Amino acid sequence: ESQYKSHVYADQTNVTDAIIQSRYELTKQKGSRYVPAAFLTGLLDPVSSREEFLQLFADLEGKLPIMVVSTKGAPKRSKAEMEALRGAKGVSKFVEVEGALLPQEEYPSHVAQELYNFLQETFAKC
User: Fold this and answer.
1) Is the pTM of this model over 0.85?
2) Rounded distance, CA 39 to CA 58, Å?
3) What is the rounded distance in angstroms from the CA atom of residue 26 to the CA atom of residue 47?
4) Structural domain boundaries, residue 12
5) 3-class SS at 88?
6) pLDDT digit string (tens) for 96-126?
7) CA atoms within 13 A on the CB side of 53
8) Residue 20 pLDDT class (50, 70, 90 cuts)
9) Which pairs with CB-CB distance under 8 Å and at least 24 residues apart come from 9-12?
């Protein structure tokens, strides 16, 4: 709960008992025991450097429209990784919304509106 209040959600009042309970239930699923540790240590990352990460996007240039959603309240290290994508090759649009690490949960209507706008801008031309 403390992590959600300190850096996962931007607004502590959005961390409800129901959210904490749902996360706790996830830890009871078969095979989930080591997922948080793997996530926190980077073992789930498909790349080992920022350059490799940026190359994944560059390789999609002209093939697929990509919108990156950054957040205003992300922790410093996470924010730096998000900002590395601003203007990066392969990124069609970069937007910033309220929130920290899970804006799609904390502010779903804001994220949905940005996604809607992106889809309209991208596919209205077709």
Assistant:
1) no
2) 24
3) 26
4) 2-123
5) coil
6) 999 998 899 999 999 999 999 999 999 987 6
7) 11
8) confident
9) 9/99, 9/100, 9/101, 9/102, 9/105, 9/106, 10/71, 10/72, 10/73, 10/98, 10/99, 10/100, 10/106, 11/106
